[in-house]
Amino acid sequence: MKMMHGGMILFLFYAVLLAWLIPNLGLFITLVGALCTSVLGLMLPPLFNICVHWEKGYGTGYWKLWKDITIIFIGMVGCVTGTYISLIDIAKEYSI
């Protein structure tokens, strides 16, 4: 129980430190969101699907493989675009 309270206090300290060091936390949240959402939501599930169907096959004309590759490509485009836009916004805010 004490370990859990220590972890909660450490997490709270970390959150306060981030809020103090980064005045506009929303810009960095969008950067993390652009990276994590596209990877976790669009790129990893089709990659796991490819791994699962490796032995079974991908259907006639490999349609499952092409579907997964298309979704991974869309995720990569979203990741690069979202990261680029977030970095541009951060650069404008801090006038780098």
Helix % is over 70%
Number of helices: 3
- Label the overall shape: flat
Mean pLDDT across the residues is 87
Order of helices and strands: HHH
Number of domains: 1
Largest sheet: none
Rounded to an integer in angstroms, the radius of gyration calculated over CA atoms is 20 Å
Oligomer: single chain
Please give a structural write-up.
The protein has 96 residues and is mainly α. It has one domain. It has three helices and no strands. It has helices at residues 2-21, 25-52, 63-94. Helix 2 runs antiparallel to helix 3. The longest helix is centred in the C-terminal third of the chain and has 32 residues, at 63-94. It is flat, with a radius of gyration of 20 Å. 5% of the residues are buried. The model has no long low-confidence stretch (mean pLDDT 87).
Give a short summary of the structure:
The chain has 96 residues and is mostly helical.
Topology:
Layout lengths: L1 H20 L3 H28 L10 H32 L2
Structural features:
96 residues, 3 helices, 0% strand
